[in-house]
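Please decode residue identities from the backbone states below.
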């Protein structure tokens, strides 16, 4: 960034803008990094846990409660994910305004030059979060179903579990629409002009 020499008031404002921009970029990166790791590790941990729990030596009666617990914990993590998306969106808006104030054009700054999201604005964290968290919840529902006897035998249950796939797709579609309507206009950058 080029600093133009001027009076000390301008210098202090410039320094404050640079500091705010650095903090916004750092916070955005840290939140995004944590959310990405959680999104990658949650299905891996769930798959491993479900595989180990469904082994023939497991206590089948306990699987119902464990599965319900898994669904509830996953729902809580998804709520945390939505808050992370909100915070990242706010930080991106803030950083975009700061890029404008600092004189960075659309090609120079990482926030103002972002392309529009595809898939009705859900490409990226919003859509990935829905797909992964709902899949994990449905995996825990399967575990709960084994424990509560929704499936007669684990071998037969695996066949019946395919009934969860259409349910998953319906819930995913409804959740997709719900998130889009809950967050109208949130997937478009709004920093083409400075904040008034």
């Amino acid at each position: 960034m080029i600093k133009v020499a001027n009076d000390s008031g301008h210098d202090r404002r410039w320094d404050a803008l640079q500091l705010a921009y650095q903090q916004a970029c750092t916070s955005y990166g840290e939140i995004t990094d944590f959310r990405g790791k959680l999104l990658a590790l949650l299905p891996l941990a769930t798959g491993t846990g479900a595989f180990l729990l469904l082994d023939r030596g497991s206590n089948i009666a306990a699987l119902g409660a464990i599965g319900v617990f898994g669904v509830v914990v996953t729902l809580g993590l998804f709520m945390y994910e939505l808050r992370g998306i909100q915070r990242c969106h706010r930080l991106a808006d803030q950083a975009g305004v700061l890029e404008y104030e600092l004189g960075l054009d659309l090609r120079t700054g990482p926030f103002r030059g972002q392309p529009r999201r595809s898939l009705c604005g859900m490409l990226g964290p919003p859509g990935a979060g829905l797909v992964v968290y709902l899949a994990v919840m449905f995996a825990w529902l399967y575990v709960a179903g084994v424990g509560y006897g929704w499936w007669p035998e684990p071998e037969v249950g695996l066949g019946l579990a395919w009934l969860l796939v259409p349910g998953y797709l319906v819930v995913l579609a409804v959740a997709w629409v719900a998130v889009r309507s809950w967050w109208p206009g949130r997937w478009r950058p709004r920093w083409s002009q400075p904040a008034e």
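Observation: The CA atoms of residues 11 and 38 lie 41 Å apart.
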